[in-house]
Design a protein that fits this description.
The chain is of the alpha+beta class and about 700 residues long. Helix 12 (about 315-325) packs antiparallel against helix 18. The protein is elongated, with a radius of gyration of 36 Å.
C-alpha cells in the first residue's frame, strides 16, 4: 500500500500552485503598470540617473615664464547645489531640525547674505514645483558664484550636508579656473579664458588653445547598488605646458617704469617692448591704457595691434634706404641746407621743431638724425627719389620696416605703407607730390610698435631681422616635446656698410643728440626719438586737442647689443617729447636690465664692518634653522611674540610667504594686495586674535 496520501497532499500542491500563479500575475500586472501608467516617470529617472558615457575634461596646460615660473595655471573651482528629491527628504524631520544650523553656517562662510536670507532661499528650493509636478528642485544653487576648494570643504562639513550626496542631496559641479600668479603682468600677451565657457578669447591662451587644452577622455558610468561605478573607456590626455620668452623680472621692471611715467605726464596709453637681439625673444611686453576711472590697465594688446603714424623713429628707415642705395655717401658728409627751420615742399611748409629759434642751418646727414630734422630727412628723400617714389617705397620693403612678422598672436596688424598710386579715387591711398616728403619723416604710414622694434633689432643684429618669438618650448610631464627655434625673416636688410654707418649715427643720437635722456653713464646706448601728432578718435587732427605719439626705439649696450627696446606714450597737449618722456622710460628699463648682468667679485662684496650673521626674520623659520644647523651656527632666540599665539604678530617688512604663514597659523584669514614686502596690515599687531577674522596685507 502506497504511503502517498492523495487526498492530503494534492490540496497542498494546489494551494502552492495557486499562490505562485497569483504572484506571477501580480508581477506581470506590475510590469504592465510600470510600462504604461508609470512610463513617463521612469523614463525621466533613467535619463537622470543612467549615463552610458561621460566626457572627462583633461587638465589644461600651464603657461610658464622663460625661467619656469607659473604665469597661468588651472585650479578647481566649485558651484554647489541641493537635490531636494534625495532620500533624506522623504522624511523632512531631519532637514527641519538642521535648517537653522545650515543657514547660520552658510552665513558664517558667506557673510554677504544673512542666515535668514539663506533659510528663505533654501526653503524656496525645497518647495519648488517641477515640470513633472513633483515638489523639490533637483539642482538648486546654494550660492550663485564659484568657490575655491577650501570654501567648498567648509560647506561640505556643515550639518546635514556632510552626509553622502545621494542621501543629503548636496552636490557640486567642478570647473577649471584659470589663475595668473603674477595677476596683470603681461596680461594681454598671456591671455585669458571665458570662465563659464572654459574657452580662450585672447593672447597665447587663444593662439595655443588646442595645445593647452589637451584631449577629453570618456568614462562609462553604471549604477550598481544605488552607487555609480566609473569605467574608463578612453583616458584624457592633459594639455602641454608652454614656456614663453617672457622674463618676469624684466616684465615687472618695464611695467613699473612705464606706469610711473604715464602717471607723471597723464598719458592716455603706453607701450613698452623689450626684445633679445640675437634670438628675437620678447622678454617683456607692456600695454597700458587709462580706463574711465583713471586707472591704468592692460585692456588691449596695443604693442601688436595699434597701427599709427610712427613719427621720427621712421626717419632711420628712410636714411637706411638712401645709404643702402648709395644715393648719399656712407661717410654722411652730404650737406643739407635746412635754413631757418622752414622749407616749402611742393606748396606746403615743412618745419623743424626749432623753427622759432632759427633752425639748424647747414648740417650733414648724420646731424640731421641726431637733431631729428624734418627738413634734413625730407629734403634728401625728395631730392633723390622724387622722380621715382616707387624705388623709395620698395627700399622700405627691402629694409624690413614693412615686413609681415606673422606673429602667433590674434590681433596683430601688419604695417601699411602704400605704393605710389595717382589714379585711385580712394583719398587714403592717393599719392600726391607731398606724400613722399611727409612719408619720409613718419607720416602717411601705419605701423605697430612691434614692427618698429623688430626693425631696430635688425640694425642692432648687424642686419639680420629676427621674428619676434613669444614661445620657446612645449613641455609635457617635465620633458620638452617641441622646441621653437629662432626664425630669421631677413638675413640682411641692407648692405653691411650701410648698417655700420647707421649704428654709428644712432649711437651719436644718444651721446650728442636729442636722445640724451635715454642714455646711461655706465654703458653705451643707441637709438632714435620720435614725436608725432596723431589723429584723434574721430580721425581728425584739428579737434582742439592735439594728441601726440611719443616714442624712443633703440638698443643697448651699443658696442655689444644684447637688447632692443621701444617705448611709446600717447598723450594730449604739451609738453610732449619723445626723448624727454619715452626716452626716460627706456633709460630706466635699460639700466634695470643691465644691472642683472653685472658680475662682482666675492672679495668686493666683503664688508668688515657688517654683522657676521644676518638676523633671521620672523615667520616660517624651518628653512633658516636647517641652514644654520648645518653650518653649526648658534641661532638667536626668536622674538617673544612668536610664543604668544593669541596675539597678532607684527609682519611689517616680511615677505608674503612668511607673513601669511605666521598669521594663518594663528587663525586669521589673510588677503594680499600688491607685490613685494609687507608695508601695512589691517589687523593691528598686539591685538587679541579673533579666529576667522580677516587681515589684509598691503605689499610693496
Amino acid at each position: 500500500m502506497s504511503k502517498f496520501d492523495n487526498e492530503k497532499v494534492m490540496p497542498r500542491y494546489m494551494a502552492i500552485a495557486i499562490v505562485m500563479t497569483l504572484i506571477g500575475i501580480a508581477v506581470i500586472g506590475k510590469a504592465l503598470y510600470i510600462m504604461t501608467a508609470k512610463k513617463q516617470y521612469w523614463t525621466e529617472v533613467a535619463d537622470r540617473l543612467k549615463r552610458d558615457s561621460v566626457s572627462v575634461k583633461p587638465n589644461r596646460g600651464n603657461i610658464l615664464s622663460c625661467d619656469g615660473q607659473l604665469m597661468a595655471t588651472s585650479i578647481p573651482e566649485y558651484k554647489i547645489f541641493m537635490d531636494y528629491q534625495a532620500s533624506a527628504f522623504e522624511n523632512d524631520s531631519l532637514w527641519l531640525d538642521k535648517i537653522d544650523s545650515i543657514s547660520e553656517g552658510l552665513n558664517r562662510i558667506f557673510p554677504q547674505r544673512s542666515a535668514a536670507e539663506f533659510k528663505q532661499h533654501l526653503e524656496e528650493g525645497r518647495h519648488k514645483e517641477n515640470k513633472n509636478g513633483s515638489i523639490g528642485a533637483r539642482h538648486w544653487a546654494i550660492w550663485p558664484r564659484r568657490i575655491d576648494y577650501n570654501t567648498y570643504m567648509e560647506v561640505r562639513q556643515l550639518p546635514f550636508l556632510n552626509m553622502p550626496k545621494y542621501k543629503s542631496g548636496f552636490h557640486e559641479e567642478v570647473f577649471n579656473a584659470r589663475r595668473r600668479p603674477f595677476t596683470s603682468l603681461a596680461l594681454r600677451t598671456i591671455g585669458g579664458l571665458y570662465g563659464a565657457k572654459d574657452s580662450a578669447y585672447y593672447g597665447l591662451e587663444l593662439s595655443y588653445d588646442s595645445i593647452l587644452r589637451g584631449t577629453p577622455g570618456i568614462t562609462g558610468r553604471r549604477k550598481i547598488l544605488n552607487k555609480y561605478m566609473n569605467i574608463p573607456v578612453t583616458m584624457p590626455i592633459d594639455g602641454c605646458d608652454i614656456v614663453t620668452t617672457i622674463d618676469v623680472n624684466m616684465q615687472d621692471l618695464a611695467e613699473r617704469a612705464l606706469l610711473d611715467e604715464l602717471k607723471l605726464v597723464n598719458g592716455e596709453m603706453g607701450v613698452a617692448i623689450l626684445m633679445e637681439v640675437e634670438t628675437g625673444d620678447v622678454k617683456a611686453i607692456v600695454n597700458m591704457m587709462k580706463n574711465s576711472e583713471g586707472r591704468y590697465i592692460e585692456a588691449v594688446n596695443s604693442a601688436i595691434s595699434y597701427r599709427c603714424e610712427p613719427g621720427s623713429v621712421f626717419k632711420v628707415a628712410s636714411f637706411l634706404v638712401a645709404l643702402d642705395d648709395e644715393v648719399i655717401p656712407n661717410d654722411t658728409s652730404f650737406i643739407i641746407h635746412t635754413g631757418s627751420g622752414v622749407m616749402e615742399m611742393h606748396g606746403r611748409p615743412m618745419k623743424d621743431h626749432n623753427w622759432r629759434r632759427g633752425g639748424y642751418g647747414d648740417i650733414n646727414v648724420a646731424r640731421a638724425l641726431e637733431v631729428s630734422s624734418n627738413i634734413g630727412v625730407s629734403y634728401v628723400i625728395d631730392k633723390f627719389y622724387g622722380s621715382d617714389p616707387t624705388r623709395y617705397v620698395k627700399g622700405l620693403y627691402r629694409v624690413g620696416i614693412h615686413e609681415d612678422l606673422k606673429l602667433p598672436l590674434v590681433g596683430y596688424h601688419p604695417p601699411y605703407i602704400r605704393m605710389p598710386d595717382t589714379k585711385t579715387t580712394d583719398r587714403s591711398r592717393y599719392w600726391s607730390k607731398t606724400t613722399l616728403p611727409w612719408m619720409s619723416i613718419g607720416y602717411e604710414t601705419q605701423i605697430a610698435p612691434i614692427n618698429t622694434v623688430s626693425f631696430y633689432n635688425a640694425i642692432a643684429n648687424n642686419g639680420k631681422m629676427m621674428q619676434p618669438r613669444f614661445v620657446k618650448q612645449l613641455v609635457k610631464n617635465g620633458e620638452v616635446i617641441r622646441e621653437f627655434e629662432p626664425v630669421v625673416l631677413k638675413k640682411q636688410i641692407a648692405k653691411p656698410k650701410a648698417i655700420k654707418t647707421m649704428q654709428t649715427i644712432l649711437e651719436h643720437v644718444v651721446s650728442q643728440g636729442l636722445g640724451r635722456k635715454a642714455g646711461s653713464p655706465l654703458f653705451k646706448v643707441a637709438g632714435k626719438t620720435g614725436t608725432a601728432q596723431v589723429a584723434d578718435q574721430y580721425g581728425g587732427y584739428h579737434s582742439g586737442i592735439t594728441r601726440y605719439w611719443l616714442s624712443f626705439a633703440g638698443y643697448f649696450p651699443a658696442d655689444n647689443p644684447l637688447y632692443t627696446c621701444i617705448v611709446c606714450i600717447k598723450k594730449s597737449g604739451l609738453p610732449a617729447s619723445g626723448g624727454g618722456m619715452s626716452g626716460v622710460v627706456f633709460h630706466h628699463i635699460a639700466e634695470g636690465v643691465m644691472a642683472r648682468h653685472l658680475k662682482m667679485s666675492v672679495d668686493d662684496a666683503h664688508d668688515e664692518n657688517s654683522v657676521a650673521i644676518p638676523e633671521v626674520k620672523n615667520g616660517n623659520a624651518k628653512a633658516a634653522n636647517l641652514v644654520l644647523d648645518k653650518l653649526d651656527i648658534d641661532k638667536r632666540a626668536p622674538k617673544e611674540e612668536q610664543y604668544r599665539p593669541h596675539i597678532t604678530p607684527n609682519v611689517t617688512g616680511m615677505g608674503a610667504k612668511d607673513a601669511v604663514y605666521l598669521l594663518e597659523t594663528r587663525g586669521l584669514k589673510v588677503k594680499l594686495h600688491g607685490r613685494g614686502k609687507v608695508k601695512s596690515q589691517s589687523y593691528p599687531a598686539g591685538r587679541e586674535i579673533v579666529k576667522g577674522s580677516e587681515c589684509v596685507l598691503i605689499l610693496e
